[in-house]
Amino acid sequence: MKYAEEFRDPTAARIQLDRIARLVAEIGATAEKPLHIMEICGGHTHAIFRYGLDRLTPPGIEFIHGPGCPVCVLPRSRVDECIEIAERPEVIFTTFGDAMRVPGTRKSLLQAKAEGADIRMVYSPLDALDLARRNPDREVVFFGLGFETTTPSTALSIQQAARENLPNFSVFCNHITVPEPLRVLLDDPHMMLDGFVGPGHVSMVIGTHPYDFIARDYGKPIVVAGFEPLDLLQSVAMVLEQIRDGRAEVENQYARVVPEDGNPVSLAAIADVYERRPTFEWRGLGEIDASGLKIRNAYQSFDAEQKFSVGYGADQLRRVPDPEGCACGQVMSGRIKPVDCPQFGRGCTPEMPLGALMVSSEGACAAYYQYGGHRAVEAAE
């Protein structure tokens, strides 16, 4: 398709909504016994609320918001470690803007910047590389954060730093992977999930086969989806068709962007630079085996954890609980909706966030607050 507007056509949307309504009726789902469909990606959560798809789809569908926001699932201890690195006088700490306002135990990166730490927002790790070239007397640290979507760009930057022999560049690696937490959710007996809308951007890199276990081992349908309203509506309809037919398959609605086998150049860079951590802590989900990436020994000189002895590179790993009354973990794992958190719209707002879900551009609480506005706050009261 040539233009994004073609995926926002109201007439085509009505056709898909009618299709969804027929499928819901055929399956027999109702508001009392709805189908629970988890959209894994935080970008999908925001699109659902931005276009009002939660109100346009029939009551027999309930969207469950999954752990697809990398800033949101980062535990507070990792934010604290960012600040510990950033407050060193020799360091220029660089980060994507999404992470600037995420609260740690004592402060956020934005507050640390206001107190004098040299923290700079960048648009890619290549910006951090350029800073390292122009500031040879400073240690430039890039906050490597995100799922498989952003992992390749960090890997390619580390490879470039190695080629240039830039000793003052390093990465605080917090890259994580999508499939592993989905297995944890599917193993949770309290999670009632009927199907998944799969992440589009992640799948551009890894392809569709890493989700095979969802259909094969758990009998749940998953459809990789794009981000426009028609993408999402068609993907929901495809999930419903599988449920109606008693099928469980991995389907690719976003085939115009997502190759079945992923992006070979990106996958090669990831394999060269990273290896799996034995375990990694997720906000709300706890320790998940093999769900995080670490920098290989061959590139150890570019590993900020090793260079500054923090996090998994330190003698002792810190664990920091969420603030009292904060339900980020329950929201992130799909157990409750943002409006069910006692702090939503009261102790936690975009201006005064208590948890990461309210400040991230992919956070579920931010989506509810931004697109629900006063209605979302009133619903919480």
Commentary on this structure:
With 381 residues, the protein is α/β, with parallel strands linked by helices. It folds into 3 domains: 4-67 and 191-252, HypD, alpha/beta domain 1 (Rossmann fold); 76-177 and 261-313, HypD, alpha/beta domain 2 (Rossmann fold); 328-380, no CATH class. 39% of the residues lie in helices and 15% in strands. The chain has 16 helices and 13 strands. It has helices spanning 10-27, 42-50, 53-56, 76-86, 109-114, 125-134, 151-164, 179-187, 200-206, 212-218, 229-245, 264-273, 304-308, 328-332, 364-372, 374-380, and strands at 35-39, 61-65, 91-95, 119-121, 139-146, 169-175, 195-198, 222-224, 250-252, 274-276, 279-282, 286-289, 293-295. A 5-stranded parallel sheet has the order 2-1-7-8-9. A 4-stranded parallel sheet has the order 4-3-5-6, sandwiched between helices. Strand 3 (91-95), helix 5 and strand 4 (119-121) form a beta-alpha-beta unit. Helix 1 (10-27) runs parallel beside helix 11 (229-245) and helix 7 packs across helix 12 (264-273). The longest helix has 18 residues, at 10-27. It is globular. It starts with 9 loop residues before the first helix and ends with a helix. 51% of the residues are buried. The mean pLDDT is 92.
List the helices and strands and how they pair.
Layout: H1 10-27, E1 35-39, H2 42-50, H3 53-56, E2 61-65, H4 76-86, E3 91-95, H5 109-114, E4 119-121, H6 125-134, E5 139-146, H7 151-164, E6 169-175, H8 179-187, E7 195-198, H9 200-206, H10 212-218, E8 222-224, H11 229-245, E9 250-252, H12 264-273, E10 274-276, E11 279-282, E12 286-289, E13 293-295, H13 304-308, H14 328-332, H15 364-372, H16 374-380
Parallel strand pairs: 1-2, 1-7, 3-4, 3-5, 5-6, 7-8, 8-9
Antiparallel strand pairs: 10-13, 11-12
Helix pairs in contact: 1-11, 2-15, 7-12, 15-16
